[in-house]
Amino acid sequence: MNLIELLRSSNAYPLERLIKEVYVAKDQQIYQPGQHTNSIYEIVSGAVKLGSYGSQGQDITYDILSAPDTFGNLKYLNGQFFEFAKTIIPCHLRVYPLDFFKQIIVEDPAVSEWFNKNAVRRWSIAEARLFSIRSANSIERLQVIYNDFDREVLDSENKKHHLFSLLTKQEIGDLTGMTRQTVSQIIKKLKPIRLKKTA
Question: Which residues of the chain have pLDDT under 70?
């Protein structure tokens, strides 16, 4: 059950007054590092990349999200949050006021359990990727990312996309700890059959 389904099932919240729904075109910033935001976002459809800027101002991607993931600044990091969020394809987003979101993840047991499960899932994925970067060879790293994103997503216009195929070589490089050039060389060497879903 996703967040909005949990909230609707309780009938305890004035959702129509609190929650907005927005549509964001492809390749648009949702927020930038240092921008003051008071919202948490839930992906209804589409895909979003999260990242930050390198020492020379370049985009560095560290996560790719799709429905029904949530993202945003919970403001628990004493001003150390320095992240951008950008759409990869046209997105339909639900926008929750930050104060309301923080209240329900503490006070509503069902929402709290949902939040904890999702946080642990995201940590586990991040840890597995980091382990892969430190322990696997380049082909194995690429396989890990392929497995993570070998799925179909819908955009806000109800068009289907293969999530891995949406990623640029630079984004794959960021997620695997390889350069864009290395990613390009590996993909050229591999036949499509080599990249397949593994158990």
Answer: 191-199
